[in-house]
Amino acid sequence: MTPTQALMDELHFAMRGMQLHLPKGVAEDLLRARFHNYEPRIGRLRSERYACPKCFLREGEKYPLQPTPGTDEYDLLACPACSNEYVIPFE
Ligand SMILES: [Zn+2]
């Protein structure tokens, strides 16, 4: 899968959605810092690995999302840690 703007948009969108349901027990200022520091791509500029926004927000860890079979219209990425799935529409 090639990096696309749709993918980046989806992960940022998911992150914004999760900010509305902040996990309990994590300091609010820490969550805010993670939210602002979230960068979907892991590692090098041309890396094709992407971090789960949910896990990053909750734990500060970057779990690489795994491509799973999608359809003709979208790709699916699943998190190995929390099983959250992200739908990435084709451009
Ligand atoms: Zn996750």
Overview of the molecule:
The protein is α+β, with helices and mostly antiparallel strands. The chain has one domain (5-89). It has helices spanning 5-19, 28-37, 53-59, and strands at 66-68, 74-78, 85-89. The protein has a 3-stranded antiparallel beta sheet. It starts with a helix and ends with a strand. The mean pLDDT is 84. It binds zinc ion. Zinc ion binds at residues 52, 54-55, 63, 79, 81-82, 84. The site of zinc ion (ZN) has 8 residues, from helix 3.
Describe the structure using short key phrases.
globular, 3 helices, alpha+beta, binds zinc ion, three-stranded antiparallel sheet
- In percent, how helical is the residue content? 25-40%
Tell me the domain tally: 1
Mean pLDDT score, rounded?
84
Overall morphology: globular
**Side-by-side strand order of the widest sheet:** 1-2-3
Task: Describe how the helices and strands are arranged.
Elements: H1 5-19, H2 28-37, H3 53-59, E1 66-68, E2 74-78, E3 85-89
Antiparallel strand pairs: 1-2, 2-3
The chain binds zinc ion (ZN).
Short structural description:
This protein is α+β, with helices and mostly antiparallel strands. It has three helices and three strands, in the order H-H-H-E-E-E.
